[in-house]
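Q: Here's a chain of 737 amino acids. Please give me its 3D structure as tokens.
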Amino acid sequence: MIVAILLGSAVASRAADAPKRVLILHAYNYTFPATTIASETARKRLLAGSRQAIEIEADFLDLARMPGDVHAMRTANFLREKYAKMHFDLVLVIGTEGVPFIIKYRDVISPGVPVVFAGGSAENYAAIQLPPDVTGVMSGFDLDKMLELAERLQPNVTRFVVIGGSGRADRGWQAATRKAIEARKRKFETAFRVDLTYDAMLAEVSRLPSDTIVLLLSVYADSAGRPLIPRDVAGAVAKASAAPVYGPFGTFLGSGVVGGYVETYESMGIATADLALEILSGKDPATLPPRINPGQDFRVDARAMQRWGLKQSNLPPDSIVMFQEPGLWDEHRNLVLGTISIIVLQALFLAGLLFQRRRRRQAETSLRESEERMTFTAASVNVGLWQFDRTTDELWATEHCRSMFGLAKDVPLTRETFIAAVHPEDRRAAVGTLRGALRGQAAMTDVRVVCPDGGVRWIRVRARSHLDDKGTPDQLNGLFVDITDQKTAETEAEQQRQEVTHLMRVSVMGELSGAIAHEVNQPLTAILTNAETALYLLDQDSLNHAEMRNTLLDIVSEDKRAGEVVQRLRGLLKKGESRSEEVNINELVDSTTALLRSELIRRQVLVESDLGANLAVVLGDSVQLQQVLLNLVVNAMDAMSTTPAPQRRVMIRTLQTPTGDIQVLIKDHGHGIKMANGKQAFEPFYTTKDHGLGLGLSICSTIVRKHGGTINLRNDDAGGAVAEFSLPARVMMMAAQ
């Protein structure tokens, strides 16, 4: 029993390892591109997608050129004799005409073997009783989408002409077309031009009015029985037609047909192979009914559209435009430049060899002239070229490099000379760039060069290494680019941004001027009252020193209060360089709410604070950060202008996130924001206020980002909007300029 079990296991193992055999039958011959493409794609998919080895045999049935039972029987007998000693696990039929053939002659060729077919529409197989073990992938013929494409491209056309052949497969497509046209709501003046000879067909389309939609179906044979190749017919019809021609087959594209809602025969081959792999893996074909190929989309030929003056802007969304011919420069700019450079270098190299064989002096002269031209070209765009040989410690540079670094003509061009001309604070960066290039990395840095007259020039240093045969960098090549004008422009832009930021602070203070005046007026009024009281006490016969002391202390207290208000306003309104200092966010929140106290009372807005304890400090510009808080709180008050007074509450919360960042949240009870405007709100000049400039949130975003943080707007689940920003704690960040 043990021996029998072991032998059975060995036999089963050999059976499992045995390769699967598949017979691919082409309904037509090799001249039909559709079946050839689908077959080749299916073959590759079968070999790549199967875990078992697959052996594939293939034959052409040639049923289009030689219709009739005599040829079919002869072919079936030929296949039986050819594959008499082979057992196939599956037969794959490519092409509509092959399905009736295999159903009729399967018992002759390969009895009982499952069949998978590719191609044809449901109407093609409506009259065929498919056995349970015969399944396949059918073409999805969607005439509605085909007409949608034609109507978009030719919106004013009402005439519709259908061109078709006389073959058996052709009639199936024609029946499907008639059915689709009858079911369509929009009615065309429709004419079917089928059962014509090939010459009559071409003559017919040449006489059509230009405002006609021409739909070309398959033409495997004309009315005279002449076998034809549909793609060749499509090319001839498109060339002869006086109106745009559309077609439902992918092979028509490129032949002059405008396009259609088509499937590629690559997708047909893949879908068919996937279905075959399911059966080869052990699934019962009876449980796998025929399916529609999902790989369909709108495809058009850009050349045909240009011929008929059709606009690509009228195409349905996600349409695929094929045979687009962009300009050579637009499509291959880098390749063209590289090719030109290579050609120029090759020409110089060949010229050098020829001149060297003839005259060494002529070669040297040519090389010198070439170097001068290159140097002149670089100098004309304010660029200097240089090369450093590490093995010999020699530096070569163009003369323009000398003028860029302010070096006299008698000063030798060496590495030390150039580094000495660099600003002392930038020398380490320059040396680090060169060392980085020696490690095999392209490097770049910007340095300042001190000119002999005391002026400063900005130079961008680019460097990359050249490796020898051993992979060791032996040379450095690079550029010196004068970017002084660029740096000057950047500095001016930064100054302008600083001016705009200051103006926005002044603008906010202008909006709050009434509240600020009231905030200053209160302590001044108290000071006046206490001063009058002190004068009154001095006029009394007996001076009450305790009461006089309390009165004077009140004057001092109110004076400090007024001074703090003025100091805060002065800090917000003053101009000057940004500074980086330790900022306590909780104290900044308290200072801001104190500054806005009168405005909050005037607008009947209640501020609720939930400030985290023991928060780490952040490093930045306190004036700019207070400007962010001021803008966000004022925006929160503006958002609640139509909110009932009892509900006008602003919640300010601070906390430290798990990552260590300090987070500030300002929540209002207004109408919220439109989600589509969440990101747009931070763009310059975007505003939802009638009186707004659209710069407040943009400046807030710039300030927060320059401090290394993030800012965001969102709606709260309980209503209203939440503005939140986060800043890194205990990390020195550059303040916004």
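Q: Can you summarize the key feature?
A: The radius of gyration is 42 Å.
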